[in-house]
Amino acid sequence: MRKPLSSAATPLTDTLSPSSIPLDQIGQTLASIYDDLVSEGVPEHLAALVRRVRQTDAEATAPHEPPPLVADGPVPRLALVVEDDPEIRALAETLLEETELDVVGCDSAEAALTVLQARGGDVALVFADVRLAGAMDGLQLARAVATLWPRARLVITSGHGIRRPDLPREAVFIAKPWRPLDVLVEAERATTDPAPPVT
User: Fold this and answer.
1) What architecture (CATH level 2) is domain 78-192?
2) Where do the segments described as Disordered lie (predicted)?
3) In this predicted model, what pLDDT tens digit does every residue of 149-180 receive, in sequence order?
4) What tens digit of pLDDT does each residue of 49-93 get?
5) H or E element in which residue 46 lies
6) How far apart are CA 188 and CA 151, in angstroms?
7) Are the beta carbons of 23 and 14 closer than 8 angstroms?
8) pLDDT tens digits, one per residue of 99-144
9) Contact 131, 88 (CB under 8 A)
10) N or C: which end of the chain has fewer CB within 10 A?
11) What is the 8-class DSSP label of residue 165?
């Protein structure tokens, strides 16, 4: 049986002379026989050293979690302008750029769906013409948006009359030629009105 260690031992420094053994190495050795030392009574300053070494070892072997992602700010909301006429699309984009929304223009429903698939949760407003380039028209796009991205405000425009049953219940219709104020009002509603619940 080992003799109890005396608590009146000389205070430890960073290294012990003459062999200059680092304290951490001593602590590791003590940690390996810690249970025996505790049963025999270990001086408090040695116990503290052992605890420190064990804590350091645990931190070194613990898996490191990646730091939490910190956003630089809120993700900007989007207005999606879907219009195959370049001049009208450019006019609508310029108009909506005066709002707090970021604006993305598309000439087809297929291009709009690509944007929606990537950033659908950020889209606050879809402003779409009925006649578009591509296989889908604006009414088909409107139905897809109403079903898959119901939180986006849906505004359909056309130079031709549309029967109300052809539009999703949530959609707003603005006839061409539209007035800039009407478009801005819908953009304002898209950013201030509470989004409909997702059912």
Assistant:
1) 3-Layer(aba) Sandwich (3.40)
2) 1-21
3) 999 999 999 988 788 778 899 899 999 999 99
4) 556 655 655 555 555 555 444 445 566 799 999 999 999 999 999
5) helix 44-61
6) 15
7) yes
8) 999 999 999 999 999 999 999 999 999 999 999 999 999 999 999 9
9) no
10) C
11) G
Structure-token match 């490191």, residue found: 64
Cα–Cα distance measured from residue 178 to residue 167, given in angstroms and rounded to the nearest whole number: 18
Residue 140 corresponds to which amino acid?
Q
Decide if 183 contacts 96 (C-beta within 8 A): yes
- Neighbour count for residue 154 (Cβ, 10 Å): 24
What φ, ψ does residue 154 adopt, rounded to 5°? Answer: -115, 115
Instruction: Of 147, 96, 148, 98, give the one whose Cα is nearest residue 125.
Output: 96
Number of helices (H) and strands (E) in the chain: give both, helices first.
Answer: 7, 7
The dihedral region occupied by 88, where left means phi > 0, alpha psi between -120 and 50, and beta the remainder, is alpha
Kind plus residue range of the DSSP H or E element containing 198: none
Spatial distance between the Cα atoms of 12 and 117, rounded to a whole number of angstroms: 65
Residue 155 C-alpha from the chain's centroid:
27
- Predicted confidence at residue 161, as pLDDT, reads 79
Task: Give the pTM.
Answer: 0.61
Fill in the amino acid letter for 2: R
DSSP letter for 13, please: -
Six-digit token string for 117: 């698939």
Q: Are 81 and 105 in contact (CB under 8 A)?
A: yes
Q: Is the dihedral of CA 148, 150, 151, 152 positive or negative?
A: positive
